[in-house]
Design goal:
Two copies of one chain form a homodimer. The first copy, chain A, has two domains: about 100 residues, Ribosomal protein L30/S12 (60s Ribosomal Protein L30, Chain: A), CATH 3.30.1330.30; about 160 residues, Alpha/beta knot (3-Layer(aba) Sandwich). In chain A, about 30% of the residues lie in helices and about 20% in strands. Chains A and B meet through α6 and α10 of A and α6 and α10 of B. Chains A, B: Keywords: Methyltransferase, Transferase.
Chain lengths: ~280, ~280
């Protein structure tokens, strides 16, 4: 139920203490910030509003808009509770605050409570589940795309080993179009322990690799399926591949294999289709 | 047939006239350069060697390597003719030459001759063909990914309207893992004229859209199929969609539609499969 129209507080001075949380967020984004995160752009702002209302540990703390974006965002702003402050600034002030100009005039600060660990997350999955498991993903673009695809194709949880990068970074959240804020995930431990946990929970685990044994079109339906993808460069190590089912995506020979996020998208589409999830 | 080992010419001075072509290539990359292009990274360098040997209008002019990359690239260098000069520099000199540090220590300058126009390209397609047609693609990442996917799934040509960005830019070439150098393409005219040309050549044209009528799994095999994708934000305009078959990719409701390059990858995989091309 949308609330009344919001009237942003005008900020004239980049050093105004009310917007201190937004100052130089680009650099701070690189350092990890105690459960806080940055949302950029209209689509992510809308997802933040949805996550905030859902009340599952994600909350908006403040919103900062470029003056000329306010009118077009009235409906999105109305989706936030009235106690979330909304600030507005002209371009010169806005850029002086944020320290960069990649924000599209729409920024929010959010907070995420400590999330359940991987065991708790797995224990809470429904009897019929689809999981995306990712190991050694180091690129925030790929991480964001994995989340976006996982959400699109009905994945219940995204599980990562500890060597994967943090999906709560600004760029990953943006590329995920906000799915990082709504899709349950956990990131801990080794690839081997991740596989062990999934197997113990009754998952059929399919490792994706150009050398996989089964065409992805041949992955059978199962109550619980986990699709496993590896690092951008090397893919999944042999020790992992030898411990799970393996699947490949047909493509023309003699070319570099598909990007990991693309491969995951195609395979998820296939597995979600065969399991009637989309 | 690989040639003899290459011995790079050491460059000690960033102003050495022999490597003038590499100076500040980042800025020049933004300006369009008379058929010249920049190849970055090992994978693209290998594709450049293949394109050079194929002799279809793409040639390497010079290669510049970071000292510590030489040993690992001996096999790739041997794939270039002996008259393509190879230079090497230490990191300090290399960065001073190139003006940025995103090159992974592997750069090449290439030249592309004027390519056949769209009509000539279409006229030369085989009786059984798969074409990817793209309109209004403005992001070089997406453009590169479209090429990478098109190559992986056996597309014969990638056709773009004039409003799409130039795939010969450094970043698009890199993201395409060099497929821009080997996959035939043309970029000219309007979306409407592109469709008209494909239709006149007997193509079944399928526009991809979240509102498409047919599930992509229902696109029937055909001797000549063209998959059509639109801009990142708005997708294909209604005037275009009403003039072609339309297809959609099933996904969970209530989310942003898939990224254009991801959607094209999934649909190409499907169409290439049903037509026995992969």
């Amino acid at each position: 139920m949308p609330g009344p129209p919001r009237h942003p507080v005008r900020i004239e001075d980049p050093s105004d203490p009310r917007i201190a949380g937004f100052v130089s967020i680009r650099e701070r984004d690189l350092t990890g910030r105690q459960g806080r995160f940055i949302a950029e752009g209209t689509v992510v702002l809308r997802m933040l509003a949805a996550a905030h209302r859902a009340g599952r540990g994600v909350a908006a703390e403040a919103i900062l808009l470029l003056e000329n974006r306010i009118a077009g965002l009235a409906d999105v702003l109305a989706e936030f509770p009235a106690d979330v402050p909304v600030f507005a600034a002209e371009a010169r002030v806005f850029d002086a605050i944020a320290g960069f100009n990649m924000h599209r005039g729409v920024l929010a600060l959010g907070r995420r409570d400590a999330m359940p660990g991987m065991d708790t997350l797995i224990a809470g999955l429904p009897a019929s589940s689809l999981v995306l498991a990712a190991c050694g993903i180091s690129n925030h673009d790929n991480m964001g795309t994995l989340f976006r695809n996982a959400a699109a194709f009905g994945v219940d949880a995204l599980l990562m080993d500890a060597s994967s990068c943090d999906p709560m970074y600004r760029k990953a959240i943006r590329v995920s179009v906000g799915s990082v804020l709504t899709l349950p995930f956990a990131r801990e431990g080794t690839a081997a322990s991740l596989i062990e946990r999934l197997r113990a929970a009754g998952f059929e685990i399919w490792g994706l690799s150009p050398s996989g044994e089964t065409d992805i079109a041949g992955i059978p339906p199962a109550p619980r399926t986990a699709l496993l993808v590896g690092t951008e460069g090397e893919g999944l190590p042999e020790a992992i591949l030898s411990s799970v089912h393996t699947a490949r995506i047909r493509q023309r020979p003699g070319l570099d294999s598909l990007n990991v996020a693309m491969a995951a998208g195609i395979a998820l589409y296939q597995v979600a289709s065969v399991n009637g999830r989309i």
